[in-house]
Design goal:
By secondary structure, this protein is of the alpha+beta class. Among the domains are: 102-148; 159-227, no CATH class; 245-312, no CATH class. It is 31% helix and 21% strand. The strands form two sheets. The protein has a five-stranded antiparallel beta sheet with strand order 4-3-2-1-5, with no helix packed on it. A five-stranded antiparallel beta sheet has the order 8-7-6-10-9. Mean pLDDT is 73; it is low at 167-175 and 294-315.
Amino acid sequence: MADGTRLRALDDGLKVLQESHKQMQDSHAQMVVDQKELRADINLIATSMEDQKKTLNNLLVQMSHAIPKTTTGESEFWYNTSYQTSAQMTPFEVVYGRPPPTISRYVKDTSGNALVDAQLLQRDEVLSLLKTNLLKAQHRMKLAADKTRRDLQFQVGDWVYVKLQPYRQGSLRLQIHYKLGRRYFGPYPVLARVGPVAYKLALPDSAKIHNVFHVSLLRKCNGIPEQQITPLELVNHSSTMVLQPVAILDTRSIHRGEQLVEQFLAQWRGLPSEAATWEDKATLLASFPSVHLEDKVIVKEGVMLWIHYKIKTHP
């Protein structure tokens, strides 16, 4: 104490102090005294939860394996008796060399059990109804599809137009309104008939595509073919025309947002000047890096300056 007097704790007071320190929290608030025992309890709880999780997973696995496989036989029968277009036969024929067995119709009163006799007769009625419904559905689908079809046939030597997409790529559009663009090109003579719905045409050498087309892509040419020619330029593997610019007819500058964009009026090879389209200068030069522009300027006194760009390509 301040005056130098010493205090001595009695034995009873020590017992009270020891009991207080043995508790989870002593007389001082929020002070844990036995952290080892608390951590041991937490580890025990975590271990118990992990064991419960493993036990639950084991039970789920056992239950999944205990489910009877009632649909395996039906699935195998369906697969083995289904016709495969690649093998031109069923898997059953591939393995056993003979057609798969069919479900034979039941002959009435051949079974000694009346209940079995009734069930087999009911099965045959269901199968007959199923076949009838499938035939009706097939007939309805055929009628709906035939409404938009026409019986179109060509003979060897006939002149026909072929339907293609006259777009080189998305960045260069030949026409703003695609519906008004050309769809059919030609005409070209029919060389041969390939199967019931395909024909072989005599395409020009510049057309780098297969010369066999489905009948739906062809249209008969009426009149004199030489007077109705729509030229077909280079065509790639996707039946898309590969157009090449041959001349720049005019230039202009337009505002696109806050930028000033320079454009060329490009004339395309094989197309008239009326089919020329305005293209961005940067896009045109990036799409055709092998072409070069030469300025052809005609300067006369008292007239406006006319600039004509001519495109030259490497041979």
